[in-house]
Give the backbone structure.
Amino acid sequence: MRHPHLFEVNPAICFAESDIAPIAARQHQKIKPLFEWIVREAACAYAKRRDHEETWGSKPDTLHKVEARAGALLDLLSDNVNQQRLAQVDDASARQVEDLIASLRWLIAAIPTARTLAAVNGVRPGILGRPPDPQRRDLEAAYKKLVDRWIQIFGEAEFKLTDKWVSTDRGLEPDVGATALFLFDALKLIDPERKRLGEQLRDLMAETKKGNGLG
């Protein structure tokens, strides 16, 4: 585990001692000293994802226009006469035209990949097995950070242990399983108002196990 000062932590993100102390006290001995840093790092990932979704998540792009204009320019530059005219400008112009043509080809080829990545934004292949619910992406970002830290400390074998969930008057909550209890406590601190947190966390853990071959 890296030293806490190397964590990606926003100093503006903090928790009241009265909130975090009793929850940290319930954690495994290996987690206790780093619990607040781990949760703050996950909260930072959560905040970044939420900000991204609020700023860009629902806005359509205009990559189709970029693709069309790049294609049209590529067609024009592929004309031998146009290339010859431009090549006469100076000693470097012929090479610059070649580089521009190569860049346009790269751009046109990259656009489908950019669209695909946008469609599955926030998903790490093999961890989450299906495209995310847009309303769950912030939770997934925090979850991923927490899982990465947990696995760093305990290894993937910890995920093979059984976790048990029970229905309470507050909703579904973990009753057995150190991993589930840690994740639930941390995410509850990060997003205390989240509805159906237990159900979403249970589903995320099941997807992690399945994606990593741990189930």
Q: What stands out?
A: Residues 93-119 form the longest helix (27 residues). Confidence is low (pLDDT under 50) at residues 1-7, 122-132. Helices lie at 17-25, 35-57, 63-77, 80-87, 93-119, 137-154, 178-190, 197-211. DSSP finds eight helices and two strands in the chain.
